[in-house]
Design goal:
Radius of gyration: 18 Å
Oligomer: single chain
Strand content: over 45%
Mean pLDDT: 87
Helix content: 10-25%
CATH architecture of the largest domain: Sandwich
């Protein structure tokens, strides 16, 4: 089921979809419509789409905090205007510091379950060292988490675990990642199984049991990547 968007913040997707169904079926006083509304509300109870339309340009989005894995100066996360983005705004990491092992994080402060699917629309703008955009799940702290990322300079998608600040590559795929264009990246975590998709196409799965507890989710970049993120979708699986 395609995620619904709530303009200017986060909102339970179940309520958006349930209200839509109720409006469509009201004229017919349909018992089926009521049943469908209840089913949607129960099965989609906690899914959220976070967008950035209500945040003034130059500010970090509400419910996010910046953090850094590795070395170099702190990241610079702020909302920027982009006419091609939903609501005309996106959350961007705009620091162009070239420290290689430098991984800026924009951590979503709400606690997330261990089993979930997260996705984002991102656009790599520039970078001499890297042009990367990524998603983090099961984040215990800034040095311990899983991350998948797409890189427009290397034309690949990779999946890593980060333990005590050190990356360990687990899986990957080589494919075209165009800079200056919007792409969709999705990471599904279910038990010890992780599935990565890019632009709606499943790329690979991998099993790992390093982190099994619930944690937080985050947006991620590397080194001097200037990258825009249009949205963050968080969908619990249980």
């Amino acid at each position: 089921m395609a995620p619904l968007e709530h303009r200017g913040g986060s909102y339970p997707l179940c309520m958006l979809l349930a209200c839509r169904i109720a409006r469509q079926m009201k004229a017919r006083s349909s018992t089926l419509g009521l049943a469908l509304t209840i089913i949607v509300a129960v099965t989609c109870a906690s899914a959220q789409t976070i967008t950035f339309g209500d945040t003034p340009p130059g500010q970090l989005a509400k419910d996010f905090e910046g953090a850094l894995t590795g070395g170099g100066p702190p990241p610079r996360w702020e909302v920027v205007s982009d006419p091609t983005a939903t609501e005309g705004k996106a959350l961007a990491q705009i620091s162009a510091d070239r420290t290689d092992l430098r991984f800026p994080l924009a951590i979503y402060l709400a606690r997330a379950p261990a089993d979930l699917e997260v996705s984002t629309r991102f656009k790599a703008i520039s970078g001499k060292v890297d042009q990367a955009g990524g998603l983090v799940v099961r984040l215990a702290d800034r040095d311990n988490y899983y991350v998948t990322r797409a890189n427009a300079l290397e034309d690949n998608v990779r999946f890593y675990r980060v333990v005590k600040g050190r990356r360990h590559e687990l899986a990957g795929a080589n494919l075209k990642v165009s800079g200056g264009e919007w792409h969709t990246l999705t990471l599904r975590a279910e038990g010890t199984r992780f599935t990565v998709s890019f632009d709606g196409k499943q790329l690979f799965t991998h099993a790992d049991s390093t982190f099994t507890a619930p944690g937080k989710v985050a947006l991620w970049t590397k080194a001097d990547s200037v990258t825009l993120f249009e949205s963050l979708v968080v969908k619990p699986l249980r």
